[in-house]
Amino acid sequence: MRLIITALMVLAVTAMQSYADESNADEYARARAALVREIEANVRQTQSYLGREVLDPRVIAAIGKVPRHEFVPAEYQSSAYLDQPLPIGYEQTISQPYIVAVMTDLLQVFEGGRVLEVGTGSGYQAAVLGELCDEVYSIELVEPLGVRSGALLQRLGYDNVHVKIGDGYAGWPEHAPFDGIIVTAAAPHVPEPLIEQLRPGGRMVIPVGRPFGAQRLLLIEKTVAGDLVENEVLPVRFVPLKRGE
Ligand code: SAH
Asked: What is d(CA 214, CA 67) in angstroms, rounded to the nearest whole number?
């Protein structure tokens, strides 16, 4: 008898657990949908900078799909779908979703494409890119962050996202050239190796400026002839791109 009661209790707890998981999943999906609407509104408000009123629907769909709550520390999970940067430890941050959406849109990544990211951080931007192109190569300088994000991306099934620990200033020459390069930390100037590793016809999105000072988000296009065309998009604020030893 006692055995049966225990078994029933286990069943009830399991049922409650899966009910809770499901309603959490619904709640996160609703929060993500609201976040997408907020990003769309922010894009309309900043259209004079962006030169457009709406982002690529594929980018919007990727933001609507990637579970940002998995990429933030447990204590910030309830804020995961606010349009804000959040601390991820080691004095680093996960970028504001609007910025992730705008930078991804500027890259114009496509199926079959290969992208390099400098500054894996939480892994969120890499996951968004992983939804949109074939292969993502992402470099993180802070070892525990890179290890944690690499494992998380694996657990979530992003097999096309490859994380390595190292100084992203040097790029990842073994996998170059890249169709797109995205840098998610601000550098005083555009690292030369990254320019070299950009395919002719490719695009780079990078914040450039002083650490914690005025920074500009740049879109750099490499023409088929190999010339560089630079466009300033937005004033931004990123953590600094550091140099490894
Ligand atoms: N893309 C991240 C945002 C990360 S913040 C996300 O979606 O969460 C910028 C990251 O760049 C930090 O994690 C920081 O440690 C890393 N970083 C700084 N300098 C670097 C360098 N030279 N090479 C690689 N990563 C660097």
From this structure: 31
Residue among 215, 147, 156, 208 nearest 183 (CA): 208
Summarize pLDDT for 89-136 with one digit per residue, the tens: 999 999 999 999 999 999 999 888 999 999 999 999 999 999 999 999
In this prediction, residue 213 has a pLDDT band, given cuts at 50, 70 and 90, of confident
**Within 6 Å (CB) of ligand 1, which residues are found?**
92-95, 118-119, 121-122, 124-125, 139-142, 145, 167-169, 184-185, 239, 241-242, 244
Q: Residue 240 C-alpha to ligand 1 middle, in angstroms?
A: 8
Give the tokens for residue 12.
């009830």
The topology under which CATH files domain 3-236 is Rossmann fold (3.40.50)
Backbone angles phi, psi at 89, to 5 degrees: 90, 165
CA distances 159 to 30, 105, 118, 150, 234, Å, are 26, 22, 18, 10, 32
Supply the residue whose CA is at minimum distance from atom 14 of ligand 1: 119
For the question of residue 95 being annotated catalytic, the response is yes
74 to 87, 89, 237: CA distances (angstroms):
11, 12, 25
Residue 149 CA, closest ligand 1 atom number: 8
